[in-house]
Amino acid sequence: MLNEKTEIELIEMDKEHFLHPTSNVKEQQENGPAIIFKSGEGIYLEDLNGKKYIEGMSSLWNVNIGYGRKELAETAKQQIEELSFSSTFSTYSHKPAIKLARKISELAPGDLNTVFFTSGGSEANDSAIKLARHYWNIKEQPERRKIISRKKAYHGVAMGATSATGIPEFWEFAGLSPEFYHIETTSSDELKNIIEEEGPETIAAFMAEPILGAGGVIVPPENYFKEVRDICDQYNILFIADEVITGFGRTGKMFGMEHWKVIPDMMTIAKGVSSGYVPLGGVVLSEKVHKVIKDKTEGTLFHGYTYSGHPVATAVALKNIDILEKESLIENTRDMGRELLTGLEKLEEDLTVLGESRSVGLLAAVEIYKNKEKKEHFDNKQAPLIVKEAAKRGLICRAVTYDEADTIVLAPPLIINKKQIVKIITILEEAIKVVTKNQNVS
Ligand code: PLP
User: Fold this and answer.
1) Which atom of ligand 1 approaches the CA of 214 most closely?
2) Distance of CA 75 to CAs 62, 70, 263, 327, Å?
3) Given the CA of residue 271, which atom of ligand 1 is nearest to it?
4) Residue-wise pLDDT tens digits, 335-383
């Protein structure tokens, strides 16, 4: 029986049989898994040896309501017993998917009113890209195919999503699809320039995360998205907001774009919609896009996943959103986000190696510098070492080291309280001190 295996046996089985996603394969082969998790409750995960960790990243920025909620287990059980699966292809439907589509439409800003379901964020972004091209095809502008996105963006690993991703390592892996272009991260002028250069009549859509997540929690200038919206309108280009991380409360609003009161033409969602209890994602379409699709698509819409609108996933997501609302977790995110930022700023004052703390809600980051006045980084990146030290002390956080960055990122569950934030800051401080004590700080 598997549960009688010792940790050593599990490590060997893992090395031999489990190719890990987005992983350092050599490290995995040499050392096996760093942690084998066993259970989770609240903001904590526990490993096989009973060691507890604060999950300062909500796993992959997704477990918004925290771990181990019995209500979600109960909802999944009931739904599996009643209707474990049925198709939503063609004109088949079922209650949980209908109710969730309606609920998301109510929550989404502006005229974002119709949902196409997927199993996760990559499929959501691929679907948005394909729906954008379909939109232009049926509007008899088939030459509008190009997708513009941003450097440092992460949109997932399906072929279109990975091509829109602005981190080149992801294309070097399997090749970049044609007709994808990447511009500087926070310059709306660059968007205008590339549209002019390529010709607006060849461009289908611009895709952007409200706040870049995996790229290092990069917050745009105040007017950036307003300008983006105006440029897209001026050139008649669809604007797709990737709310996979920022959706469902993470930034202290239901959706990230609400910070700038900008309404995209399509919005992609995943992660927090189900807090990771079940895989789910989707594209929320504006009335403008939906009207063209419903009026002009002849015959079949040739796009759909077996698990588009899975009954168990949609039922669990409805319950998850219910909890988010009933427990006022978005308000808590705003309050605890301020606590977290205050804690990071205090650390910045105390530790010469820290700079540029930033957060929007519970999406936060801080830079590690050799010389923060000159914004000079250490030759060897410190953030990955700090992350390892923090894990030893019971805190999981993430290092971002693309390009110049040497960044620590935090995105704890939205249920976190003040005492737990203080604990995060304390562990981080210890880990930073231990790692950087022998470094030459200038
Ligand atoms: N978009 C963003 C902003 C993400 O951060 C991610 C995943 O981290 C994705 C898309 C891809 O989502 P998934 O991993 O569910 O396919």
Assistant:
1) 5
2) 19, 9, 32, 18
3) 15
4) 999 999 999 999 999 999 999 999 999 999 999 999 888 889 998 999 9
